[in-house]
Amino acid sequence: MKSVVSVVFLISVLASVLAAPRTETRIVGGQDTTIDQHPYQVSLRRLGTHTCGGSILSISTVLTAAHCVYYTNAEATDFSIRVGSTLRNEGGQLITVGELIIHPNYDDWTLEWDISVLKLAVNLVLGEMVAPIALPNNNLKVSHGTIASIAGWGSLYYQGPSTNHLQQVSVPIVDNAMCSVAYQNFGSIWPFHLCAGAAGIDACQGDSGGPLVLNNEVIGVVSWGYGCAFNGYPTVYTRVSEFVDFIREHM
After folding, report:
1. Of 38, 50, 67, 103, catalytic
2. What are phi and psi of 182, to 5 degrees?
3. Is 85 a catalytic residue?
4. Measured between alpha carbons, how far is 204 from 86 in angstroms, rounded to an integer?
5. Residue 119 clears pLDDT 50, i.e. is over it
6. Active site residue 114
7. Dihedrals φ, ψ of 120, to 5°?
8. Residue pLDDT, tens place only, 47-99
9. CB 238 within 8 A of CB 115
10. DSSP code of 67?
């Protein structure tokens, strides 16, 4: 009987893994917020539809995940951004992207080096609801358990509906060593990764590319994870401090 239970358990685990893909276009457990509280927040749109988040770095530059803009035969003008609006699909400024700068080491299979800089076709008009966020120092260290913030218009739960109203949630940083154990059967956690999240609070589909914020600095870019807010599986972010030189080169 014990061996049968073990086999059933393994089949159950395998089924759950297959049902929840490792890579997500990735707020669960959050609350309504407004754009003046997150004036750097961007809705990245492909062919007019919201696909990802992003963050304003300057009047002409946006930071997002590489997988958000890595499409076969994609043109920069396929993408636009909406800024300065609490609502995903109306208001604010809608501006076309002029250039896509994907990290040269980006791997679309493993999602390593998942970071991209977007140059806008027209400069943003800055104000109370549209403002850049600072980059961290390239030697920034973030301790396990530190609370950071993530906002976005993504799904409210795994494979659930998305929201037109900006959401925000505070999430704890998870030490890379612990994160690596959690994801040992899914992929590698590298020094250029940063993990954050807990059961019931996390980023989700549609939040990819959005900024993980600490002390008014963007310290992470939503990259991938197993489901959304699953117990023991934090979201994996691109660690921005590892890419400051690359970002500044293209600002």
Report:
1. 67
2. -60, -35
3. no
4. 18
5. yes
6. yes
7. -85, 150
8. 999 999 999 999 999 999 999 999 988 899 999 999 999 999 999 999 999 99
9. yes
10. G
